[in-house]
Amino acid sequence: MAGTEPCFDVAHLGHVELFTDKPEASLAFFVNVLGLTESGRDGGSVYLRGFDDYEFHTLKLTSAGRTGVGHVGYRCASPQALERRVKAIEALGCGIGWTEGDLGHGPAYRFRDPDDHVFEVYYETKRYVAPEAEKPALKNIAQRYHGRGVCVRRLDHVNMLAARVEPVRDFLPAALGSRVTEQIVLDDGTLAGCWFTVNNKSYDIAYTVDHTGRHGRFHHVTYAVDQREDVLRAADIFLENGIHIETGPHKHAIQGTFFLYVYEPAGNRVEVANAGARLVLAPDWEPVTWTETDRKKGQAWGLRTIESFHTHGTPV
Amino acid sequence: MAGTEPCFDVAHLGHVELFTDKPEASLAFFVNVLGLTESGRDGGSVYLRGFDDYEFHTLKLTSAGRTGVGHVGYRCASPQALERRVKAIEALGCGIGWTEGDLGHGPAYRFRDPDDHVFEVYYETKRYVAPEAEKPALKNIAQRYHGRGVCVRRLDHVNMLAARVEPVRDFLPAALGSRVTEQIVLDDGTLAGCWFTVNNKSYDIAYTVDHTGRHGRFHHVTYAVDQREDVLRAADIFLENGIHIETGPHKHAIQGTFFLYVYEPAGNRVEVANAGARLVLAPDWEPVTWTETDRKKGQAWGLRTIESFHTHGTPV
Amino acid sequence: MAGTEPCFDVAHLGHVELFTDKPEASLAFFVNVLGLTESGRDGGSVYLRGFDDYEFHTLKLTSAGRTGVGHVGYRCASPQALERRVKAIEALGCGIGWTEGDLGHGPAYRFRDPDDHVFEVYYETKRYVAPEAEKPALKNIAQRYHGRGVCVRRLDHVNMLAARVEPVRDFLPAALGSRVTEQIVLDDGTLAGCWFTVNNKSYDIAYTVDHTGRHGRFHHVTYAVDQREDVLRAADIFLENGIHIETGPHKHAIQGTFFLYVYEPAGNRVEVANAGARLVLAPDWEPVTWTETDRKKGQAWGLRTIESFHTHGTPV
Amino acid sequence: MAGTEPCFDVAHLGHVELFTDKPEASLAFFVNVLGLTESGRDGGSVYLRGFDDYEFHTLKLTSAGRTGVGHVGYRCASPQALERRVKAIEALGCGIGWTEGDLGHGPAYRFRDPDDHVFEVYYETKRYVAPEAEKPALKNIAQRYHGRGVCVRRLDHVNMLAARVEPVRDFLPAALGSRVTEQIVLDDGTLAGCWFTVNNKSYDIAYTVDHTGRHGRFHHVTYAVDQREDVLRAADIFLENGIHIETGPHKHAIQGTFFLYVYEPAGNRVEVANAGARLVLAPDWEPVTWTETDRKKGQAWGLRTIESFHTHGTPV
Predict the structure, then answer these.
(1) If contacts are CB pairs under 8 Å, which of residues 209-248 in chain B contact chain A?
(2) Which of residues 144-173 of C touch B (CB under 8 A)?
(3) How far is D254 from chain B (nearest CA, A)?
(4) Min CA distance, B315 vs chain A (Å)?
(5) Which positions fall inside the VOC domain (chains A, B, C, D) (predicted)?
């Protein structure tokens, strides 16, 4: 049956909007330390991207009286795919409606996930066009490798907190055509974490349980670098710039990601990561399930997961 | 129109069959030096795979009186997608017909590309199940990281030679739904090389001009490692094992791949490569075109392309 | 005055003898997992070395009813330098006397440090001569890069435990001409750790306080790899081989060493490390002193030092 | 006999003075692209150093109507050692006399090598003291890891050209106590290149034949980075900044150095390099001799040495 075929309507995670109550310090972090480049600004928002992000922005940093996530945008594979997704989302009863888009993209359809985070899907986008000073020496990257700060390559994924993850496991496949690639199932059957992807990356979004029971909170946003050495170098850059390093560098057992977590000045958690050559190519990939026993072994090489990783989310 | 939507019928490059006239030496190279693991053998063929290849095999090494490529297999995203591809291929008039598959997969439909290389598409596959001694410590990789030789992670891509590349540029999108991501167009308009992908990898197959004008020849097969350091380490391993290093390590201007090329004992070219975090996520990616002027700059960091790279193919 | 000139009588740390009560398992670890190569054996000892150690051995693994360190050997810069050191050591009243040497080196003068560890100084040595199968492709390394296991390059340093470190800080400069490069001084003035070198490496031996108050115990032996990536790769190799990883990879605040600690099967701690391009070139280097306040920041990137690091020594 | 003992009078290569006829462009390269930091300036000279160089400067960049090397300074191990070296140099009949030093160090004794390059030996030095904004997070490095440009760690070595290398092979051991670690001897017995060290680095100066027969010319100065990945990253930084990359990254057969050569704007050759964990620890190291046959194999992994490497020197 056609209904059981994999869905490819959504092409990739497009951008995330982060709220900050320390806009200047946050911006300085993202530009000078993480190495994003500003594309433009409007209202209280600054549009930022990694040097090889092809769209106008992958991070919309919005000055607000709070921290946490504003919304998450996914780009669809075609106008028709966008239509299909809107129809599917509306059928799920969680639609908010259309927006006109912003500096970075065209019309977007907004909706809520079961934990009250705001998402949007869109197709029309504004491609980043490098100004003369940012033109790359090699024409197949979006912007020159400028070498500023950590100089991350591209947006990789986001991690949400949710009071309950189970509803999300059903929701994202229905709304976005996401596949579950890995998950944590506790001994009592509770789903403690779930990793999803819409494409060949092994995940573009993860949800983990918010032990405070609150809704709509944010765990972290991740930018990818090309090599694990870039993650190690990032650690020195964060250290020298007085950025709080929460944990890492180390390798996650789940997904095998080589990670480093810091808090940007307003408190939102940011990860720099490298996945090596790992991709999920199998169209019929079976979710990998991690048990409590598995998790007791710590991260891949035995690091105990730091307590704040289970408790710190934004808003705090 | 639905017809202009991207096609996702083919999930990924599945395997390549290489011919060797030095089967023992070739096998020793692939197992002990490159670090593939044998899954099984039948007739004159040995089935091999990288430690994180999920299928039974990604390389079928077949003893023959010659070198070069036997066939290339692509796995479809679903049974329905396979049906659609067979229909499309038959319509192109290049179909050969169904085979029963082999040790590694189920029924496959074979066809020829315009330069007379043999391909097949299939859906049913045999997943690699690690025997006790090869079980990984982390359950999300297919086999333990055994550390033998270069210990490549997974099949990455193949490169074919063709008397003319233009017909292939039309053919692969029609047959497999491939997209062109990069290409070399000479000053006289000739297409000297073309890179294609069916998924988010920036390429899974490339075609470059065979200056001898022959048909059906093979340029190289590539296995991916996680880090550029693995490529550098591979160079020392090849050196110490008396394997002919043709060129590298260096970074390709095209696709930005960090590469190292060697000849396996029978003469087939093998590449070890790392792409960093580079992916083609844009559903409407515009092909990047390299001109003769671009190519005169050499590889990314200025290395002159070695002459044999333009002349050596198998069979010789 | 000549007396205040730096002393260069001792060229480098030569070897360490480790005791094991699980000789077969320990040997399998050192050869197959860490990647040392056997040079020979006599009595209950196996002589081992890293691929670029120039002497016959840097590790003498001796079967005994216990774990811990047998002795540590330093090679002098010349026969005259050896004579001078013996005279100085005898004057310190801690001499044991001459031995005839062993398979790896000529006559050695043995002595005890203030905490009862046995040392020896020697000049005549047996150089490793690679058998045909181990000859390197490049003639400036001692043995081919064989790629087995972690494939460590060379002995780097040892770390002793001592009931009190203060006497050692006076002793090693007098006995070996060592310089103190870094140290930990607690708020009450206690010397909690001290790092020494006889050459341009930033340390070849360290002493840290044994909180059990016992004497003559051993903390770890370290082998150097060329790149931090080799340390990360080692972590996967240890993981897949069931070797207990105690802590790391991470970067020490002290000395900046990128480290990974494991226990070999008998329980002796072994480190794989990389120091980058760091050397102590200044002839008048001033010791760097770390305070309790400094230490509360954890390792370089904030990792809390694992409790066992302060308690586990051999014999246990 | 004491006379045959190794000499340790000279502690390390201290600095090199380079002439430039494009002072602004050269300075911009060294500061913004290579990542050196300015310590001060006087007359037409700017004093520069890598982030972990402990002295006031390791590069004195002097505006002149020409390119090439001004002088090379070596720091002695003690005042007494300096006296001994001056006596030895005077006995060789090549002394120039004392200078008062400059911003970076105290009195220095100048002399000429047999090819007419100017050297100096000194003991009193000015240590770099980091201003507040440059203080490192970890107190055992000289300056914070600022991450600007290539951000090299420390001066590594210099390479001189000489009409004849043989006289230098005799001279440096006599003048500085240098040891020969590697050399190229042609089939006709000519010494084509020679690598020397005064300490445990495998070389701090090299001499190669100047095929033009001229005297006093300069081949390159090298700064060390911690990892090979830093060299690869440097290649992208040079590429994006329009710096001419001559050759590399690749691994030298001789000394095993992982190298990358560029020309700074005035034309002086600059290398970024990593030696891994390689050190010359043996006090009785036997020089490694490379023959013409050896050299025909190219660099370590087969790269042909680029022609300009044999012809380009400064002044041009």
Answers:
(1) 224-229
(2) 144-147, 149
(3) 14
(4) 30
(5) 12-124, 154-275
Residue of A nearest to D235 (CA): A145
Question: HSE (CB half, 13 Å, CA atoms) of C223?
Answer: 29
The number of beta carbons lying within 10 Å of the beta carbon of residue B9 is 22
Predicted local confidence at residue B4, as pLDDT: 72
**Bridge partners, residue C244, by sequence:** C263
Q: Would the CB atoms of D140 and C256 count as touching at under 8 Å? A: yes
Residue of C141, C158, C194 whose CA lies nearest to C58? C158
C239·B137 Cβ contact <8 A: yes
Contact indicator for D16, D74 with CB cutoff of 8 Å: no
Q: Domain of C299?
A: 7-311
Q: How many domains does chain C have?
A: 1
Asked whether residue D316 is domain-assigned, the answer is: no
For chain A, how big is the Rg over CA atoms in Å?
Answer: 19
Residue C16 pLDDT exceeds 70: yes
For the stretch C175-233, pLDDT in tens is 999 999 999 999 999 999 999 999 999 999 999 999 999 999 999 999 999 999 999 99
Residue with tokens 């992958």: A58
In whole angstroms, what is the distance from residue D167 CA to residue D160 CA?
13
Residue A133 has pLDDT above 70, yes or no: yes
The CA dihedral of A287, A292, A296, A302, to the nearest 10 degrees, is 10
Residue B95 belongs to some domain of the structure: yes
Taking CB atoms and an 8 Å cutoff, what residues of chain A touch B6? 8, 77-78
List chain B residues with pLDDT less than 50: 1-3
DSSP string across B76-88:
ESSHHHHHHHHHH
pLDDT in tens, D89-134: 999 999 999 999 999 999 999 999 999 999 999 999 999 999 999 9
DSSP B78: S
Inside any domain, residue A316: no
How far apart are the C-alpha atoms of C61 and C27, rounded to whole Å?
8
Residue C192 lies in a domain: yes
CA distance C109 to C73: 9
Q: What is the mean pLDDT of chain A?
A: 97
CA distance C53 to chain D (A): 9
Q: In angstroms, rounded to a whole number, what is the distance separating the alpha carbons of residues C138 and C131?
A: 15
What is the reported pTM?
A: 0.98
CATH number of residue C53's parent domain: 3.10.180.10
